[in-house]
Design goal:
By secondary structure, the chain is mostly helical. It is built from 16 helices and no strands.
């Protein structure tokens, strides 16, 4: 890891503290909505869908701006600021509409920073080491998530699970968010602006278009894949106590932390396609374990969810870094596709769960991801190099 650029290390710490703040609220937000505020699973699905979808256009725009005008760090700093300030305000909410609005604002921040941040990481990556670099960054990202999860567990265990405690936890998430914002503002160097004539029309190259086409299969897989919020409610449904739900996320985050850098090495050595195929198998396994409706299998499912998440993200991000020319724009398309398909999937899954039950929603998710995995194994869209 001594070959990792200092700016990537600093961005890693930014993600560490930002994801610590996010992890303090993500495991309990579905319970806050469904159990404390007495909203239905369809309302939870709407919150997830709105929060995911609202960043669709901005992810495209921020990536385009980074490539076209060379504006990178200001977008990253602005995105982290928006996220840090919006999360704590959820503690003031009393209905799903206001929660959906604040989650949308938080996702706007993520949409604003995601593509430019990945462009910075890519620019600071050494030759033939993009997989390792993104793997390192994801390790820091998930280590922060794990820290936030363990902190959340400690707070719930010591102070209890009352509405007042949960609201106060939302407020406290402001602190790590501000630390991350401070680091990115003062300790991360902007990348050099490209010398480009504004009168010259910006176009995607053939390599860019081919890279984008290769991403569509992943987008479709995410449409069927259960989101974290639905994993949480499955755990609650099968009888896992609220205080222990953060530890389920700790299992996922711990697996990601331990495996992220290793997956980066595998990507550089064997190619993104092989790693992504393995990730799809783990996604199917995670939902298959949820289908068994047993607390023990739910714990194991979170481990497979962690592998799916880290392996698929590292593979796709490294693939773009290695194959696209206008990487900021392609990263924008990538995150937009993830947002759009994730949003539609969450809405559909929430409606199925609310009207037909948890097992029906799981059957929809499991059947879709399983069939797509079979298709992917038959035709590896990422190649074998």
């Amino acid at each position: 890891m001594r070959t990792i650029d200092r700016n990537v290390v600093m961005l890693g710490w930014v993600s560490f503290f930002t994801d610590m703040a996010s992890a303090m609220i993500s495991p309990i937000l579905p319970i806050f909505v469904v159990v404390i505020l007495h909203e239905g699973m369809d309302k939870l699905g709407i919150i997830v869908a709105v929060a995911t979808f609202v960043s669709y256009a901005l992810r495209l725009v921020s990536g385009y701006i980074s490539d076209r005008y060379g504006i990178v760090k200001p977008l990253v700093v602005g995105g982290y600021a928006l996220s840090a300030l919006s999360k704590p305000l959820i503690g003031t909410c009393h209905g799903y509409q206001s929660i959906a609005g604040l989650k949308a604002l938080e996702r706007l921040g993520k949409g604003l920073r995601s593509a430019p941040k990945d462009l910075m990481i890519s620019e600071y990556s050494h030759a033939n080491a993009s997989g390792k670099t993104f793997g390192f960054h994801k390790t820091m990202d998930i280590a922060g998530e794990l820290s936030g999860i363990l902190l959340l567990f400690g707070l719930l265990w010591y102070f209890g699970q009352s509405e007042a405690v949960i609201r106060n936890i939302f407020y406290v998430s402001l602190l790590p968010g501000l630390v991350g914002l401070f680091i990115v503002a003062f300790f991360v160097k902007d990348i050099p602006s490209p010398k480009m004539s504004l009168s010259h029309a910006f176009i995607l190259t053939e390599r860019d278009k081919k890279s984008i086409t290769s991403l569509f299969f992943y987008f479709l897989f995410l449409f069927f894949m259960f989101s974290d919020a639905f994993f949480t409610m499955q755990a609650k449904t099968v009888g896992i106590d609220t205080a222990f739900i953060p530890l389920l996320f700790a299992v996922s985050a711990g697996v990601q932390t331990l495996s992220s850098y290793g997956f980066g090495i595998f990507i550089d050595r064997y190619g993104a396609g092989r790693v992504l195929a393995f990730a799809y198998a783990c996604g199917v396994a995670a939902q298959g374990l949820l289908w068994l409706a047993s607390p023990l299998f739910t714990w194991i499912a979170y481990g497979f969810l962690g592998i799916f998440t880290v392996a698929s993200l590292n593979a796709n991000r490294a693939f773009i870094s290695q194959n696209a020319d206008n990487r900021g724009s392609v990263y924008g398309v990538f995150y937009a596709g993830v947002a759009l398909c994730g949003a539609l999937g969450a809405y559909v899954s929430g409606m199925i769960w609310e009207h037909f039950g948890m097992q029906s929603a799981l059957l929809f998710a499991l059947g879709g991801t399983f069939l797509l995995s079979l298709v992917f194994y038959g035709k590896d869209r990422y190649g074998r190099s």
